[in-house]
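wait is this the right file?? whatever heres the structure
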C-alpha cells in the first residue's frame, strides 16, 4: 500500500473513532452537542455573579476574562481526563485490529478539540454580546490551540500508559486537575495572590496558554516572544516526552490484563 493511501486510511479511521466518541458522549442527552455551547455560558453566568464584583476594579470584562480561561482549560482537562482509560477500554479491539495504539488516544484528544470547536461558537457570541471589538491578534488564537493540543496529546500518552499499570492514576489525576485548575488563574487576576504564588503560577503551562489567549482577545496586543516560546516549548516537549513514554511501553501495554 502506498504511503499516501495508508495516511488516508489512517485519518479515515481516526475520523470514525472521533465520530464514535462524540455520538457516545451525547447518546443520552436531549440537547446533545448544544450542551457544549450552553455549558460554558451557564458557568460564566454563575461565576460572573459571584466574582465580578470582587474583581471589578482589577479585571475589565470579567465574564470574557473568565470564559477565555474556561474554554482553554476545558479543552485540556477534557482531552487528558477522557484519554486516561482509552487503552484499557479498547483493549479487545486493539488485539483484533492491526491499528496503531496511539490512534485511540488521539481520538479522545481530537474529540475534545471538536467539543472545543462547538464551545467556541458560544465564545464568539459572547464577544459580540459584551462588545469586544475584533483585533488582528485574535487570529493568533489557532496557534495557541495547536500547541495546547500538542501539550494535551503528550499528557494523554503518558496518562493512558500509566493507567494500564497503575489504575489509581485516574483518581489521583482528578485531584491533580482540581489543584491545577485553581493554580491557572482562570477566575482571578494573577496579581491578587502573593508574589511567591505568582512565580509558581508563572511556570504553570496552562496559565501560559490562557494568558496568551487573553492577550490576543482582551488586551488586543501581540504576545511577546517569551509567550510564544513558552506555549511552543510546553507543547513540543510534552509531545516528545509523551510519545517516547508511549512508544517505549506500547508492547508491554498489551501484555497487561
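ok assuming it is, sequence goes like this
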Amino acid at each position: 500500500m502506498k504511503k499516501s493511501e495508508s495516511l488516508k486510511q489512517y485519518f479515515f479511521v481516526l475520523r470514525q473513532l472521533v465520530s464514535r466518541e462524540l455520538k457516545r458522549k451525547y447518546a443520552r442527552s436531549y440537547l446533545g452537542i448544544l450542551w457544549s455551547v450552553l455549558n460554558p455560558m451557564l458557568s460564566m453566568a454563575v461565576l460572573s455573579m459571584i466574582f465580578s464584583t470582587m474583581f471589578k476594579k482589577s479585571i475589565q470584562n470579567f465574564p470574557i476574562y473568565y470564559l477565555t480561561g474556561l474554554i482553554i482549560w476545558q479543552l485540556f482537562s477534557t482531552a487528558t481526563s477522557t484519554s486516561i482509560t482509552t487503552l484499557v477500554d479498547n483493549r479487545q479491539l486493539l488485539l483484533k485490529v492491526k491499528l496503531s495504539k496511539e490512534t485511540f488516544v488521539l481520538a479522545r484528544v481530537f474529540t475534545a478539540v471538536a467539543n472545543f470547536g462547538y464551545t467556541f461558537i458560544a465564545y464568539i457570541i459572547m464577544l459580540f454580546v459584551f462588545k469586544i471589538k475584533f483585533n488582528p491578534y485574535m487570529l493568533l488564537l489557532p496557534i495557541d490551540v495547536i500547541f495546547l493540543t500538542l501539550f494535551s496529546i503528550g499528557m494523554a500518552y503518558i496518562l493512558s500508559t500509566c493507567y494500564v499499570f497503575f489504575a489509581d492514576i485516574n483518581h489521583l489525576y482528578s485531584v491533580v486537575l482540581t489543584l491545577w485548575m485553581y493554580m491557572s488563574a482562570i477566575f482571578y487576576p494573577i496579581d491578587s495572590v502573593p508574589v511567591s504564588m505568582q512565580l509558581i503560577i508563572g511556570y504553570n503551562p496552562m496559565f501560559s496558554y490562557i494568558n496568551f489567549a487573553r492577550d490576543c482577545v482582551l488586551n488586543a496586543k501581540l504576545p511577546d516572544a517569551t509567550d510564544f516560546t513558552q506555549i511552543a516549548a510546553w507543547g513540543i516537549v510534552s509531545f516528545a516526552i509523551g510519545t517516547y513514554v508511549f512508544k517505549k511501553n506500547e508492547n508491554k501495554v498489551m501484555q497487561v490484563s
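The mean pLDDT is 86. so i think its the right one actually
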